[in-house]
Design goal:
- The chain is α/β, with parallel strands linked by helices and about 375 residues long.
- It has 2 domains: about 110 residues, Alpha-Beta Complex (Aspartate Aminotransferase, domain 1), CATH 3.90.1150; about 240 residues, 3-Layer(aba) Sandwich (Aspartate Aminotransferase, domain 2), CATH 3.40.640.10.
- The chain contains 12 helices and 14 strands.
- Helix 10 runs parallel beside helix 12.
- The site of pyridoxal-5'-phosphate has 15 residues, from helix 3.
């Protein structure tokens, strides 16, 4: 039987949703480089370079810093399967969709999960965290989402490491939607564990989850009573490939790593701080444009994410119909809300290569035409 399958013909979309974001052309070009084997000396030195770049972008000196094979959720699962043992108390700040995923994973690995709750879009104060950790002693791990992609809120992290450590807990941070798009200082802020994703502010395709663990966390990992109950994500095995031992674990996607290495080089070429400033400036331009259209923003200004803005769907507008018009008439991709925010917000991502002034101009003009009933 002959299958009549045509050449791949994907329409161009301007990716202004919660991720993936547009991939930088230099990353795409680099990804067409020929493969080498996973123990080729050339490849091994590329691994060292990728780790060094990643440490700079994470602002850390942590030895255990490398990308996990898989998307952001693989990084999240790596944190829970390696650092939780059955019966450990894990406190999780719950204020959006991704903290729910954390709770689910922590439970799967046997944690006694204690939730601290805020409504979607709110953030936690130091006092609230202090009280939650004091009330649940001893706490093994305290987890927060830095950039909650489901709500558009940026959780302040300064001081959280100190509080966690005072209560004997490790601080775990999900920085999937913030790494290189908003200030994040792993060492200075006392963050013990963090994971991100390649497809957001780093401007690469999905498939790798940058991960870092501090010395104290690694010591705890090495003192586990039980084996890590996940073979693929077991850091005690993975670190033997990423450190000087170079013990084969699984075949890495050379192509994705070439891309991430280039994406990280681009971050440092731009300058990490300049990149944070760009993301913020472009987001502010979007906020101004949305307000000029009479639209309200869901998050209070002081807690808004620079990489993802949540815009309230105005009364009388059909959430899904507007997004469909944007896609069909303008090739622009944005997302709606989910959970309690379904039908109430639009999520506009301005991440990495997508974070450009002209994209905001185009989106706001398109929205103006659609909302005026002209398109
Ligand atoms: C804050 C946050 N955490 C975790 C994830 C999960 O990442 P992935 O979809 O790459 O597995 C996402 C995805 O958007 C996210 O925004």
């Amino acid at each position: 039987m002959t299958l009549a399958i045509n050449d791949l013909n994907v329409p161009y979309r301007l990716l202004l949703g919660p991720g993936p974001s547009a991939v930088h052309p230099r990353v795409l070009r680099t990804m067409s480089t020929a493969l080498v084997g996973y123990l080729d000396p050339e490849w091994l030195s590329l691994m060292d370079e990728e780790q060094a770049l990643l440490r700079d972008v994470f602002q850390t000196k942590n030895t255990l810093t490398f990308p996990i094979s898989g998307t952001g959720s693989a990084g999240m699962e790596t944190a829970f399967c390696n650092f939780v043992e059955p019966g450990d108390t894990v406190v999780i700040g719950c204020n959006g969709y991704f903290s729910e995923r954390m709770c689910e994973m922590a439970r799967l690995y046997g944690a006694d999960v204690k939730r601290i709750e805020k409504s979607w879009g709110d953030v936690f104060t130091q006092e609230e965290v202090e009280a939650a950790l004091a009330a649940n002693k001893p706490v093994k791990l305290f987890a927060l989402i830095h950039a909650e992609t489901s709500t558009g809120a940026l959780q302040p992290l300064e001081g959280m490491g100190e509080i966690a450590h005072r209560h004997g807990a490790l601080l775990l941070v999900d920085c999937v939607t913030s790494l290189s798009g908003a200030p994040l200082k792993i060492d200075e802020w006392g963050i013990d564990l963090a994971f991100s994703a390649s497809q957001k502010c780093l401007g690469c395709p999905p498939g790798l989850s940058p991960f870092t663990a501090g010395e104290k966390a690694v010591e705890i990992l090495h003192r586990r009573k039980n084996r890590v109950p996940n073979w693929y994500l077991d850091l005690t095995l993975l670190e033997k490939y990423w450190n000087k031992e170079r013990v084969y674990h699984h075949t890495p996607s050379t192509t994705l790593h070439y891309g991430l290495r280039e994406g990280l080089r681009l971050v440092l070429e731009e300058g990490l701080e300049d990149r944070w400033v760009r993301h913020r400036a472009i987001a502010e331009y979007l906020w101004e444009k949305m307000e000029a259209l009479g639209l309200k923003l869901f998050i209070r200004r002081e807690h808004r994410l620079p990489s993802l803005t949540t815009v309230c769907v105005p009364d009388g507008a059909d959430d899904a119909a507007v997004r469909t018009r944007l896609r069909e008439a303008y090739n622009i991709d944005i997302a709606g809300g989910f959970g309690p925010l379904k039908g109430k917000i639009w999520r506009v991502g301005l991440m990495g290569f997508s974070s450009r002034r002209e994209n905001v101009t185009l989106l706001s003009e398109a929205l103006r035409e659609i909302l005026d009933g002209r398109k």
